[in-house]
Amino acid sequence: MANQSSPSSIYCASFNQDNSGFAISSRDSFKIFDSTTGRLCYERAAGAFVIVEMLYSSDLLALVGAGEQASLSPRRLCLFNTTKGSPLKELNFLTSILAVRMNKKRLVVVLLEKTFVYDLNTLVMLDTIDTVPNPKGLCAFSPSLEGCFLAVPASTTKGAVLVYNVMDLQSHSEIDAHRSPLAAIALSSNGMYIATASEQGTLIRVHLVSESTKSYSFRRGTYPSTIYSLSFGPSTQLPDILTATSSSGSIHAFSLMLAINQRSKRSTSFLGSVLPDSVSDALDPVHHHVLQNSVASGIRSYAVVRKTDKLEGTSSPSQFTSIRATVSLITYSGYFQEYTLSINNKNESSWTLEREFNLHPVISS
């Protein structure tokens, strides 16, 4: 594996809604890549941007400048057309924009203490959400139109999450997930599940959005660590895999479907019926699969599960023999990696590095 301990040269890195493409921004430009092939799809030397948000693989981008050039204010959102190579519309705000999310009907803009919801097609403002101070711009967004939710912190002193229905324009629920403030949030693409991590970084919790009090816990580790990213695998129901990256330099993968199915079987047993929730909702650590030292310690990274394949067993149609997941990783030191995670029916796992390339030559080209 290449040495990745060089200082950060990337201002932002983001995957699109189905993880088929990703964007990076450097001091002088931003670039769009195909996640499957690594092909450079689009580039523009236009200065430094702290947000480059894609809308699937369309020609629409949401751009926010880093403020290093007078024309690229962090308080200005530019909707940009890559085919025409020109802005479509600009929206100006009183304070810096900290996050932007989109689907085919909604545009969400996160500021320090307010979040704005727009109709993407008309850019009419639909709602304003007053939030607790959110200096990191923490948010999660499910792009599905049937289960389109936004999640933002609901407290500065504990790990509470406000879940908001972006299509119905109303608050859905508030979840008390952790005792410490939040460090990371993720929603599954179908909007059914939400994952959270606190600033302690030792526990990852998963809630069913429709039943906000129902939670499952994975233990990432014993010692505190900063969680940089959380990501569910693609699924129309319960995702097979949940990934996390942390300041320890490891990639963590949790066999979500296996663990919860096992937990459900245990809860119907006598032992499960007498255990308190705090014990019975803790998922078995054998479902935690770790790739150590994938990134140098302290280097920010962002992992997504692009694809999962289940191989069915021959003895029983419902008994699969293995799961194979494709996990893509961007490091803020300027590398792209792709791994295959294989988990067999004994819960034994292996990580295989399939591709790795240095984004530095592309960034500096």
What can you see in these coordinates?
The chain is built from four helices and 28 strands. With 365 residues, it is mainly beta. The strands form seven sheets. A four-stranded antiparallel sheet has the order 1-2-3-4, with no helix packed on it. Strands 5-6-7-8 form a four-stranded antiparallel sheet, with no helix packed on it. The two termini are 23 Å apart.
Q: What is the number of helices? A: 4
Please tell me the overall pLDDT. Answer: 88
Oligomer: single chain
Gross morphology is globular
pLDDT < 50 stretches: 268-280
Characterize the biggest β-sheet.
4 strands, antiparallel
Helicity, in percent? under 10%
Describe the structure concisely.
The chain is mainly β. 7% of the residues lie in helices and 49% in strands.
Q: Helices, strands, pairings?
A:
Blueprint: E1 12-15, E2 21-25, E3 30-34, E4 40-44, E5 49-54, E6 60-65, E7 76-81, E8 86-92, E9 99-102, E10 106-110, E11 114-119, E12 125-130, E13 140-141, E14 149-153, E15 159-165, E16 170-178, E17 182-187, E18 193-198, E19 203-208, E20 211-219, E21 227-232, E22 241-246, E23 251-255, H1 256-267, H2 270-274, H3 277-280, E24 288-291, E25 301-312, E26 320-331, E27 335-344, E28 349-358, H4 360-364
Antiparallel strand pairs: 1-2, 2-3, 3-4, 5-6, 6-7, 7-8, 9-10, 10-11, 11-12, 13-14, 14-15, 15-16, 17-18, 18-19, 19-20, 21-22, 22-23, 23-24, 25-26, 26-27, 27-28
